[in-house]
């Protein structure tokens, strides 16, 4: 039996077998995303076979999907909905035979003509059981599999998961998803750095003072207490999304956009990272966390983390990268901020305003409707020589492209259908990140309380001193609309 995937192409009939189909991610992102791919003709011939351990049947799954679209998709016409609803199927989780029969039933209009994409939107602890079921059902051949993060919970479990996974699926069939890599603005980091001659020459330790990757969230647990209790902010966000974004920010120019070249450059960054020292980490837990349903009364899971890390190579030696993320914080933002070194001397007199608003910054906002800003000092009009912080800004929303933005999951599902691995993580990369994390995971600093709606525990200021966190922004983004 061949394990290699069939050639895929956008537009080809596709069956998405969605495990965890009644969960939070399916509701917020996957079902609305699949709907959008069908409606825009990017995946016109689609079957979605939902499966989960919750008590659902086809009718209640269709009702679940309708609610998901009502809440998370816009401008759904009745005609579009009817087409989407007709593509939905459901089978309760568990038996391989029942799963296989349900897939065949969903594909009966064109047996053998569908590309199968198994999407595992399940917690790490459930992933292997699903992989085995797929193998026993014979659904592994000629198919692809998307695995959700976190991929394992430490180095040993990630290695185990990879080796069991390889008993059933070939590496070429596996797509380890990290949706931050599918965000338009994350890809724009690559365009910005490598499609211009202007910025790359200053992209190094000589010109850059430090870098912040800051992803505070206002969101709380959103019915994901059991998942979150077993992961916490570090495994949920840092070892996954924030480190992947760090790799795009720090990597050398790849020789081409193909998966091998990009992956190799990212893995070089991961190999150069110094192990994370517990002394460089602040963990926090928001004040109402222990009272949340599904949370252990003595839980030490962190809902917040801030850390300092280093990429110890020729380009970045000595440049600190500050990362922060957490739940129930003051604002929801996803920014990368590059702080440039200040001029070595100033001819401007005291009181001119030089340096008063920190160094020059280049900032990427990773929202779907992304933005970029370059801030610098300039002269205020009028007599004398007073300086102020000015900025050049770009916002997707102000261009004619706003409607073409693909949400990250949509983009990545489409890439997986196309067999394109460029924006997916690899076993080697993931395992190295767990290796880098080992000193921290073995000796986690205590969780410190922080108030909901704040920016985290007070210790975050000591961590970054003598610098300061960019967020909250002192000046708001311009909005020309
Ligand atoms: C997910 C995490 O991967 O990313 C969530 O599990 C988090 O806890 C989410 O809220 C953030 O993603 P986005 O795209 O909304 O910034």
Describe what this molecule looks like in 3D.
There is one protein chain. With 481 residues, this protein is α/β, with parallel strands linked by helices. The chain has twelve helices and 15 strands. A nine-stranded mixed beta sheet has the order 14-13-12-11-7-10-9-8-15. Strands 3-2-1-4-5-6 form a six-stranded parallel beta sheet, with helices on both faces. It is globular, with a radius of gyration of 24 Å. The protein starts with 13 loop residues before the first strand and ends in a 17-residue tail after the last helix. It binds 6-O-phosphono-beta-D-glucopyranose. 6-O-phosphono-beta-D-glucopyranose binds next to loops.
List keywords for this structure.
binds 6-O-phosphono-beta-D-glucopyranose, 15 strands, 481 residues, 19% strand, disordered N terminus, six-stranded parallel β-sheet, nine-stranded mixed β-sheet, 12 helices, alpha/beta, 33% helix
């Amino acid at each position: 039996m061949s394990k290699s995937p069939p050639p895929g192409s956008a537009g080809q009939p596709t069956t998405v077998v969605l495990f965890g189909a009644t969960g939070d991610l399916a509701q917020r992102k996957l079902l609305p995303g699949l709907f959008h791919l069908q409606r825009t003709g990017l995946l016109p011939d689609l079957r979605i076979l939902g499966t989960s351990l919750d008590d659902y049947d086809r009718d209640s799954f269709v009702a679940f999907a309708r609610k998901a679209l009502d809440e998370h998709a816009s401008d759904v016409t009745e005609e579009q909905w009817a087409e989407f609803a007709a593509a939905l199927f459901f089978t309760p989780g568990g038996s391989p035979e029942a799963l296989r029969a349900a897939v065949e039933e969903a594909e009966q209009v064109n047996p053998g003509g569908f590309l199968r994409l198994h999407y595992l939107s399940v917690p790490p602890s459930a992933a292997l059981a699903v992989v085995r079921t797929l193998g026993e059902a014979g659904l592994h051949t000629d198919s692809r599999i998307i695995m959700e993060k976190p991929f394992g919970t430490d180095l040993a479990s990630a290695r185990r998961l990879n080796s069991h996974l390889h008993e059933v699926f070939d590496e070429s069939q596996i797509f380890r998803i990290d949706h931050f890599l599918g965000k338009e603005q994350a890809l724009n980091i690559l365009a910005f750095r490598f499609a211009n001659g202007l910025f790359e020459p200053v992209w190094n330790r000589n010109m850059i003072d430090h870098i912040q990757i800051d992803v505070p969230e206002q969101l709380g647990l959103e019915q994901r207490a059991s998942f979150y209790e077993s992961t916490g902010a570090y495994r949920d966000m840092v070892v996954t999304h924030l480190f992947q974004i760090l790799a795009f920010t720090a990597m050398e120019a790849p020789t081409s956009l193909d998966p091998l070249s990009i992956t190799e450059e990212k893995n070089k960054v991961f190999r150069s990272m110094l192990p994370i020292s517990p002394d460089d980490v602040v963990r926090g837990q928001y004040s109402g966390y222990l009272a949340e349903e599904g949370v252990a009364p003595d839980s030490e899971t962190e809902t917040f983390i801030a850390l300092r890390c280093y990429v110890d190579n020729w380009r970045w030696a000595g440049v600190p990268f500050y990362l922060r993320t957490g739940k129930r914080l003051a604002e929801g933002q996803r920014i990368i901020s590059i702080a440039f070194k200040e001029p070595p001397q100033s001819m401007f007199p005291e009181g001119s305003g030089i340096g008063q608003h920190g160094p020059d910054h280049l900032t990427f906002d990773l929202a779907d409707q992304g933005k970029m800003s370059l801030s610098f000092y300039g002269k205020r009009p009028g007599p004398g020589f007073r300086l102020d912080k000015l900025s050049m800004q770009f916002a997707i929303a102000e261009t004619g492209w706003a409607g073409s933005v693909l949400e990250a999951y949509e983009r990545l599902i489409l890439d997986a259908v196309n067999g394109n691995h460029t924006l997916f993580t690899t076993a080697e990369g993931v395992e190295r990140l767990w290796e880098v994390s080992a000193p921290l995971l073995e000796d986690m600093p205590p969780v410190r309380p922080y108030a909901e709606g704040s920016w985290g525990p007070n210790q975050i200021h000591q961590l970054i001193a003598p610098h300061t966190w960019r967020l909250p922004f002192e000046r708001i983004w311009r909005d020309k609309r």
